[in-house]
Amino acid sequence: METGVEEAEASRPLPIARIVAPRSVAVVGASDxxxxxxxxxxxxxxxxxxxxxxxxxxxxxxxxxxxxxxxRVSAAPAPPDVAILAVPAASLEAQIADCAAAGVGAxxxxxxxxxxxxPAGAALQDRVLxxxxxxxxxxxGPNCLGIFNPVDRAMLSSSLALEEEGYAxxxxxxxxxxxxxxxxxxxxxxxxxxxFSRCVSVGNQAxxxxxxxxxxxxxDPATRAIGLYIEGLKDPQRFRAxxxxxxxxxxxxxxxxxxxxxxxxxxxRSHTASLAGAFPAFAAVCRDAGAVVMEDPQAMVLACxxxxxxxxxxxxxxxxxxxxxxxxxxxxxxxMMPGAGLRLAQMSDATRAxxxxxxxxxxxxxxxxxxSFHEGTSGDGLSDCIRAFMADPDVGAVVVPMTTQPDxxxxxxxxxxLAREGGKPLLYLMTAGAxxxxxxxxxRAADFPFFDRMSDALAVARALDVAAAxxxxxxxxxxPEGAGPPPALPRGxxxxxxxxxxxxxxxxxxxxxxxAATADEAVAAARRIGFPVVLKGVSRAVVHKSDLGLVRLxxxxxxxxxxxxxxxxxxxxxxxxxxxEGCVVQEMARGEAELFLGATQDPQFGPMVxxxxxGVLVEFLQDxxxxxxxxxxxxxxxxxxxxxVAPLLRGLRGRPPADIDAAADALMRLSWLAxxxxxxxxxxxVNPLILRAAGQGTIAVDARATLTEEVTT
Length: 713
Prior knowledge:
By secondary structure, the protein is α/β, with parallel strands linked by helices. The chain has 25 helices and 29 strands. About 35% of the residues lie in helices and about 20% in strands.
């Protein structure tokens, strides 16, 4: 029979499932004093009923909390699965070495002041990691607050959140790079009746990473929804694949990303580089994989909980139906909806007929104030209206923002059965303070979510709507006919003509044009193309030509063209002395609307494409969508339809609709260009892409690009 050490050695590296739910735990730095980290770890293991063996480690005590204590881990009768280290940084290396020699499977390192504290701490973290890896021992942390596992009653943490009783097991799994935030979210979720499966604070991720624990949660049968608090990723491509795996497993993922405004998105040569940035690329990849990026960590927990305990959101894009006995609460909620990207439902005739039984026809509208009922607010009337909303095809969810009123708790008992009967989410807000606690207790007893703030309910409604859109895996992108290969082009900044050759190689229509070194050549080119024309100065040293007076539009005759040629060549010499490459004459393209298209290489996630409102205001308007390349045609169209200018493209005030289908085709083709070139393409702008009337196509009027290396055929 194997000894304890041999058994532990045989299991190295210890599977994450055994780290999260160990059979035995050593607490290094254990104490009777709950004011100390090690004292709290022991206290919480006992308090929450850890079913395995607890080994306190303290060289100065024979017993701790009635348990035999040992001077070091290697002196314990058998090596534990997990050792939790809450010791000063100065003694950490020796303790890790002892754990490694003893055959410990994994260490949860609460100790901080390592890599996050500067070079000396980083060096210590590297030494500790080397010791662990040489022994095949895994590390969680350092600088973490451990693991919360209500399913297996393994609360491997010193977080004060564990002072609370009753962490019943549930389906919310979380991974957080902030330990203190993790504890706060558990306590917050418990207040709302949310229940958790396994939650991990990963700290510095010296060894085991957020991606490792995300992979565990994706496969974990106890976990039904996943929340992530992310500061940085160790393996972005693996992270992306895991989000896709979570979608395939039917587990919604809700994410809060710290550092949304990173410096890398600020200074840039092109529109694409300035609009892309680290966070937009992160959000685009999450959206593409069906995950939901949120702003508020507490709302993230509520979204996880709602995804588990509420009936499923029927379909993306449906409206909400607010109803309550307070006109102030329902109207305020309705006023806040557009800012959250939500809308009121459009009631069907059948729904209107039901409401008309209870209130004057003049008041039949959303939001519904039940105070206008003929006999005043009644349980029967409220229930009848909610049932009608549940059956209405345009209603995605019913919202009940309850204010102070008689018998709040009694009225609250109506809502969980109505939601379960109707099969759609019902978002219940108890907006009163402590006076509403009895109503909250009703919801907890009914195992039904509730909200205290309108902003939380709005954020969750939006998150569930987005999650519904991402439930189904996307189609596989197929290369369109005539897309590629790219032509041979030099490294560095391309001229407009070279950039357009690249676009044309992927089937994107571009303007007819000809180079001109003299005014006579410009006139000859214009005669071939046909007046009116555009004249542009050409230089690789110039980024935004119009800013420097290097573009002349709508030149209608030879005289105007010759005057413009003299002015542009003079301006070009001033802007780029000795770097002029002459001028180019182009056809004058017109259309119904303008878009900006861009492509870039994100250092973490690879090729990305952008679409936005075009013209000189592209960066000012910040009306941009972004997605990883390549795209399907439907994905490209969805990006364009997601712009704030989309209503203009569809036609407004008598203007004909623009050719959105052709614009989507151009964006899809650009995405294949970006995917093919990969890291060789630093950035590419198409601005503007002119959209002609529906059915008449698009044309790229201007383009610029930068290649990191030469492209050969």
